[in-house]
């Protein structure tokens, strides 16, 4: 019996991480921080994230800080000035909370809130990791259990053996089908137009450097600025259509007039943003139904693969990062020949938290889409209490949670080797 | 059907629900009776979800969100969990 980290006479565990997105790369870094080597297999031939951004909240930036990456992130991020809620037709503020203003967010949560392009985040994570452990152009086609090892078969013809496989391969996870044996994705009945637009093309936009929700009947638009100087605005415009998602993948082409037509009558800033993006693509908002088990044998899943959620609390990437640090800490104490107790601890630590955010994001979706009237007025009163109602999401410190169950925090920054 | 066994399962499940509600939501276990309304326990939905996840782990079955959010009494929750409990009697 020997722990993974200290197993000098035990066989060294071969760890395969499937998916080189935010969760997979963070896991590889968090493992390395604890002296554990892993290999990351990414299906894409290059790490080129499609044009989209992500908001990192304190629950993940405090961890990325512990990895020694905060300065690099700060250089390419925009901290929102405020969080502002507005209606759909006029620019009256329904509720507003300072974020960067007065340093309010950092003072409350102890870490920053960042808007960042996904490509920038992925580049920072992958350069910290280095090229040695990252294998591009590896699309997983099959997992085969053979005694105590798992064979990973890839579309490029390679077959790799591993003792431990972690699926960080997103909502449409291939690894999850091995774990659950079922189809677990659920289309939400909502979809989104998205884009990144230079701020100077948005003359009607009030508070361009705030993170803002524009809420209206059957739709909402969220945006925040990205880049080192807030030069662009990333937006996400959600509609309650189609009822059924017919396409195989997560993207559907629409006629070029559809995005703007879907927001006819909304505030000019909303129209400007959607028109400027000129992107006739609709993205399905698909979740993973709550799962009872995130592991089977020597295989475990994390991030969207385990708990894909609606993005309305901006927590998909953030919870994946929390998962990565939690799993790395628990694996550092795992017994090489008996992984299930560590997987069970990981799930016990993470399932309730992610289930709550999944559920709350789902409820939030319908709240953001209320027609004008008494229900919307009640909703507006509720968003005025946003920091009190949702502080628990941003307060969370995964290292503290780990310490409660006896895991010691990692010491050295992983990005320094 | 062994009614006595069913009764025993019902009481065991109710006991587990009471223990879980007490440890996670601070509810007085004596208040946890089948006809007690969940709304009267005055637990917010996120704490309730923690209770649900703990019970799922305890009983090894999933309680989907659109089900637990419609339970009106403790008895509804116990009935759902009993589906698993009954499966273990043979």
What does this structure look like?
The complex is a heterodimer of chains A (417) and B (90). Helices cover 35% and strands 24% of the residues of chain A. Chain A is an alpha/beta fold and 417 residues long. Chain B is mainly α and 90 residues long. Chains A and B meet through helix 11 of A and helix 2 of B.
Main pleated-sheet profile of chain B:
none
Alpha-carbon distance between the two ends of chain A = 29 Å
Number of helices of chain A: 14
Name the chain pair whose interface involves the most residues.
Answer: A-B, 14 and 13 residues
Please tell me what the overall shape of chain B is. globular
Helix content of chain B: 55-70%
Secondary structure: elements and pairs:
The complex is a heterodimer of chains A (417) and B (90).
Chain A: E1 15-18, H1 22-33, E2 39-41, E3 53-56, H2 58-66, H3 70-76, E4 82-86, E5 93-98, H4 104-109, E6 114-117, H5 118-129, E7 134-135, E8 140-146, E9 149-154, E10 159-162, E11 164-167, H6 174-180, E12 185-198, E13 211-216, E14 219-226, E15 232-239, E16 251-253, H7 258-261, H8 268-277, E17 281-288, E18 295-296, E19 299-301, H9 304-307, H10 316-332, H11 340-368, H12 374-383, H13 386-395, H14 398-404
Parallel strand pairs in A: 1-2, 1-11, 2-7, 4-13, 11-19
Antiparallel strand pairs in A: 3-6, 4-5, 8-9, 9-10, 12-15, 12-17, 13-14, 14-15, 16-17, 18-19
Chain B: H1 3-25, H2 45-59, H3 65-68, H4 74-87
